[in-house]
Amino acid sequence: MSTRPKRQELLDALRVAGREHSDATVIFHDTIAQRLGLHGTDEKTMSLLERLGPMTAGEIAKRTGLAAASVTNLIDRLEQKGFVRRTRDPNDRRAVIVEATEEGVAQFVPFFAATRSGAARMWTRYDEKELAVILDFLRSNAERLRNETAKLTGAKNE
């Protein structure tokens, strides 16, 4: 008789672990947002701007799934606190570009320094093949979640 867990047991354990991971991630990011006087969507928008660079309010709405009015309020909050600035699009003077400020991005650094070093230590447990599987899972799951969000919001995911 095999002592290895059956596939269904592994799938059940993955569902539970996935929910635990999701809960911990959301609570972690919400805690950082609260510490900085932000909403959770503000913090994640800052992550998008820091990672992907400046974008229009429409692009922020598309990437977050938020309604245009919500994005306007979000940008207002971030701008009032010095996290972002609005600039005119040099190619279309009617359009406004939102960009993260260096000072705004710097406010996040202390919160992520420990988690980055902890993650670096965690990754040492895995060989290259295992890291490739983890990377594939994370990318595939992010895409799946973006698609699910687009379905819920009626937005097109591009």
Q: From the coordinates shown, what is the CATH architecture of the domain at 41-125? A: Orthogonal Bundle
Mean of pLDDT: 91
Residue windows where pLDDT falls under 50 for at least 5 positions:
none
**What is the CATH homology-level superfamily of the domain at 41-125?**
Winged helix-like DNA-binding domain superfamily/Winged helix DNA-binding domain
* Biggest sheet layout: 3 strands, antiparallel
Note the gap between the termini: 49 Å
Neighbour order of strands in the largest sheet:
1-3-2
The amount of beta strand, in percent, is 5-15%
H and E order? HHEHHEEHHH
Shape field: globular
* DSSP E strands, number: 3
What would you call the structural class? mainly alpha
Radius of gyration (Å): 19 Å
Query: Helix fraction?
Result: 55-70%
CATH topology of the domain at 41-125: Arc Repressor Mutant, subunit A
- What is the count of DSSP helices, taking H or I runs of 4+ residues? 7
The CATH class label of the domain at 41-125 is Mainly Alpha
Report on the architecture of this protein.
There is one protein chain. With 158 residues, this protein is mainly α. Helix content is 69%, strand content 11%. Strands 1-3-2 form a three-stranded antiparallel beta sheet. A hairpin with a 2-residue loop joins strand 2 (84-89) and strand 3 (92-100). The longest helix has 29 residues, at 7-35. The mean pLDDT is 91.
